Amino acid sequence: MAAPSRRRNGGDGASLWAALLLAAVALRPAEAVSEPTTVAFDVRPGGVVHTFSQSVGPGDKYTCVFTYASQGGTNEKWQMSLGTSEDHQHFTCTIWRPQGKSYLYFTQFKAEVRGAEIEYGMAYSKAAFERESDVPLKNEEFEVTKTAVSHRPGAFKAELSKLVIVAKASRSEL
């Protein structure tokens, strides 16, 4: 469509152009914007491997999977929060214990994304709570690959309270 000219032919071309543009925007299909989703789940001790996962985005395009085994204590309430950017090209997954530090001893953990590649990943021994800040794990305790943040066997000191992942749509998803 050509832009309106500055000529006046008895009508205001700019007003007509603006009306056509507004009509086109109004008739365009609405894009779904993912609101951040937070889901509570129990982290259960006992040394058995457990998995919790959630999906988000148009057609559940992205999935975050938390796999772990822990010992000691009783169940703890944790949360998984997921969201996508407005253009649905970036995805975030945060897994944490809202009360701050976990009292469970984790023998293993892995937070993995599907449908995206990790651009940033971090693991914390203590999650921010009240006046306290996040305490990151030492770099040698965990590793970040294109699709997962996981413990390093032999180096991980069994403390985990929070995981954060920011990922970008996989090339196959673009």
TrEMBL record:
Q: Does the keyword Lipoprotein apply?
A: no
| UniProtKB keywords | Signal
Name a single GO cellular component.
extracellular space
For this protein, the record's InterPro entries field holds: MYDGF
Matching Pfam families, A to Z? UPF0556
Question: What's a BP term from Gene Ontology annotated to this protein?
Answer: positive regulation of endothelial cell proliferation
What residue stretch is flagged as signal peptide?
1-32
Query: Is the keyword Nucleotide-binding in the record?
Result: no
What is this protein's name?
A: Myeloid derived growth factor
Q: Which organism is it from?
A: Myotis myotis
Q: Lineage of this protein's species?
A: Eukaryota, Metazoa, Chordata, Craniata, Vertebrata
